[in-house]
Design the sequence.
């Protein structure tokens, strides 16, 4: 899946973020959090929900969430003072508020096996074998 928002392009299978055509590296947990926020939009995710999703088998401080959000905002060119993409809901958590266009990336050679469609509300996510 490829997501476009603002001046950014998020290629999920390639784990690549581009802004204005230039690669903006994100550490793996920050990439995962950005994808989680986009998938959950426009729902507000609490800090506890984020910690459970990003660090399922570890105990981490809420400060780690704020650090990742800061890294993501820097990479996508968003501001905490005037957010256009990620909104802070003080004392609760974060939500992705930007408009996103999703497209499915197609491989030259299809993988064998069945494909599944994961339905989350009105959204449909194609899940390929592997």
Sequence:
């Amino acid at each position: 899946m490829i997501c476009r928002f603002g001046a950014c392009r998020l290629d999920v299978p390639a784990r690549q973020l581009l802004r204005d055509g230039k690669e903006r590296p994100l550490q793996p947990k920050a990439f995962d959090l950005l994808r989680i926020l986009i998938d959950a939009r426009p729902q507000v995710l609490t800090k506890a929900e984020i910690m459970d999703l990003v660090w399922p088998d570890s105990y981490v401080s809420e400060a780690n969430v704020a650090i990742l959000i800061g890294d993501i905002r820097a990479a996508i060119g968003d501001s905490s003072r005037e957010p256009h993409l990620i909104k802070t809901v003080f004392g609760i958590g974060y939500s992705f508020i930007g408009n996103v266009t999703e497209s499915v990336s197609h491989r030259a050679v299809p993988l064998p096996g069945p494909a599944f469609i994961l339905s989350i509300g009105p959204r449909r996510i194609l899940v390929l074998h592997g």
Strands lie at 2-5, 8-11, 16-19, 22-23, 45-46, 86-89, 93-96, 101-103, 116-120, 123-127. The mean pLDDT is 86.
